[in-house]
């Protein structure tokens, strides 16, 4: 992992996506597809937006959180058995950002992972 990237893992400990901090806080799939990005919110959290403008959720305390308050993936510290990540593919070009939706109110945070898988969560942000 590059020092300017944060790997995110699913509930089984598989690396699924990563945040390229020096690349506009872009969330890339392991295959190099730019799916979403982080934008600083009002309360020290980050909103997660797709390039299509959809508000997908939040990045709080090392976890991507959906609109129901469940974690969909997180840093290796937030999963029980993180696996060794394979090499990442080259990054694809980022699309232009669409006008972002207004974020909904932050839900009550659940202390568990939800049923939404991490890849589907961020892929909902593709144009």
UniProtKB/TrEMBL annotation:
InterPro entries: Bflower. Residues 7-122 form the 4-fold beta flower domain. This is 4-fold beta flower domain-containing protein. It comes from Atlantibacter hermannii NBRC 105704.
């Amino acid at each position: 992992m590059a020092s300017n990237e944060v790997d995110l893992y699913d509930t089984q400990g598989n690396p699924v996506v990563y945040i390229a901090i020096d690349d506009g806080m872009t969330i890339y799939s392991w295959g190099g597809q730019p799916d979403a990005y982080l934008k600083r919110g009002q309360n020290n959290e980050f909103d997660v937006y797709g390039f299509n403008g959809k508000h997908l959720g939040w990045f709080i305390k090392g976890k991507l959180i959906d609109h129901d308050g469940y974690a969909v993936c997180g840093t290796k510290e937030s999963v029980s058995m993180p696996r060794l990540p394979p090499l990442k593919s080259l990054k694809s070009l980022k699309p232009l950002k669409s006008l972002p939706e207004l974020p909904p109110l932050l839900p009550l945070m659940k202390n568990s992972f939800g049923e939404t898988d991490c890849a589907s969560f961020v892929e909902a942000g593709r144009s």
